[in-house]
Every structure is written in structure tokens, then in C-alpha cells.
Amino acid sequence: MTSGRANGTSDRTLLLAIAGGHLETHCVLLDLDGHALASRSTRTASPQHVGFDESARVIGELVNATVTAAEVADARAVRRLVVFIAGADTPEDRRELEQRLAKFYPHAALTVDNDIHAILWAGLRRPSGVAVLADDGMNAIARSATGMTAGYLAFGQVSGEWGGRIGLGREVLYAASRAEDLRGPQTSLQYYVAAHLGRSTVREALIACRARGELDRELPGLADLLFVADDEGDDVACGLVDRLADEVVIMATAAMKRARVNPAGSDVILAGSLLTRGHRRLDDRVDEQFHRLVPGLSITRMSVTPVVGAALAGIGAERGGPALGDDLMNSIISGISALPEQAPVRPAEDRGGMA
Fold first, then answer.
1. What is the dihedral of CA 301, 306, 307, 308, to 10 degrees?
2. pLDDT tens digit sequence for 283-319
3. Domain residues for 266?
4. Is the pTM here over 0.70, yes or no?
């Protein structure tokens, strides 16, 4: 591998883009033209799951491994760090993490925010818009042309959240249990759940999962059963899919209203496994609701890796305005794809030692 100086990194302004969810954290080192120089990944660094000290340590080791992979001659060339991470939900959360991360590159500008911002910046093609993420959980963020934003606390049901693969998994279990013991309407979900969990009844499946401590782990997979039953016209499943579509639109439009986003000429970015799976009835209902309630929106479903959004946010901040357009995004994506594959970074503690 050639050195950072030979690669010309010594006279270029560089930035580090970091995006992480509840399973994985990804880091890319790139220049302001979107040329990716190195990319590494590691396990989750969400402070919600691992705490702020551990989050900063994992991110710090990931950043160092990425810069080392690019053989950057002068670390001062890194002028900005953008960290979009799950679990950084409140201003206090962000300050806690910023204080711990500032020591790694004290000369660089630092941005810390929730991972939903990565989705927004990855999909935004106009000055204003809204992003909705429907994966294991649900979240949304809206941004006006003046930079005003509005989003939600991602604390689960206690903060008003409904849906996501985990939430839908609970709904599937609830409906299946009540159908089996006759407290609720009949639904094919009771048979799908029992078969999926390898038991003859839902009751047996619940008892077995609880005994093994695996009930929560099974919830996301149960959400997939919902769409199978919906395709067959099951009334209970259809009702839940309708509610999911409505929730996506409610989250988006409420955030847009609070951020004072003008719908005309704004983007709607839909991301996450639930909104990019290609389920026709869900997609059609979402689109119909958007066009009925807020005509003029441009709807995009995207599965671009979130770190691309962090990179675009960083480039925009350095340029003094939003970094919009497909050309720049495609350059970043192709650059990351062209980099040699690297094994995930294992933080020192995971290797049995301390950094």
C-alpha cells in the first residue's frame, strides 16, 4: 500500500464520516471531492447499548484504524468528523459523546447526531425534505430549506413510537396468542408464528422462547410473517400493514409541520428494511397517503449505506452549504465499493486487552 503522502493526502482536506446503528458502525475517510481513501467497520457503538465511555472508545479505535489504513502522513489534514450514531437522541446525549470524542482530533470540527440524519443526507436532493427510517425501530427527521429540523425521541413506545420490526413482532405475537385462545379475531398468524418458532402452538412457542431467554431476539423475524399473511388477505395482518403505512406518513408530515417544511419541491426519503422490501400494498398505501395529504413531494426509497449520508453532511459543512446531487453520492458509493475488503475492527477490550 502506498503512503498517505504518496497518495496526495498531505495536501488535501480530509474528513471522517461515521455512521452506526444498533448492530454495526462504519467509518470512511474521504476528501471534499468525495474520493474515499479508506473504510473500516466495527460493532455497535450506540451509547444507548454500550454507554458513552465505551461508545467513544469504540469510535476512537475505528477512526484510528481507518486513518492508519489510508496511511495519512499528517493527521491534521483531517478537518472534520461527522458522527451519526444510534442512541444520540437528546442534546445532552450529543454533548456527552462530543466531549469524549473531541480528544481524538482536537483540531477538527466535530458533529454528533442521531443516525436518522445519515438517512436524510443520503437521500436529500433538494434543500428541504424528510426522512423516515423503518427498520428494527422507527424514526424520522425533517429539515427545512433554512436548516430548521424536527424529529423524535427514539425511546420506544414510551416516547410514542409504534412499528418497526420489533414492534410489529410484538403485534404479531399479540394477535396470534389472542386468536389461539379465542380472545381475539381469527388470523393465520397463529399458525405462521407456531411454525416459525418450531412448535405446534403459539403457547408452546412462547413458553419455550421465554425459558431460553430468546423472545426479544425472535421479534424482528416475526414481522416478516405479517407480510406473508397480508398477501393472503388476512384481515388482522392487513390492518397492521395499513397502520404501518399510516404511521410512516404521520411521522413524516408531523415532523415537516414542526420544521416548517414547504411540501412543494421537498423530498421524502424512505429507508429501512420495512420500506425497501418492495411490498406492493404497503408501498401503494404510503404513496397514496403522501400524495393526498401533501401534494408536491418527491418520494424516494433508498437502501444506500448510512455512512454515505454522513460523508455528504461533512462535505456540505466544509463547502458551506448542502452537498446535493447524485453525482457526488455515486462517487462516494463507487469509491467505497472499490476499496479493498477489510476485516471488521475489533476494539482492544474485545481482544482481551485495553487500548
1. 10
2. 999 999 999 988 888 999 987 888 999 999 999 888 7
3. 129-156+241-301
4. yes
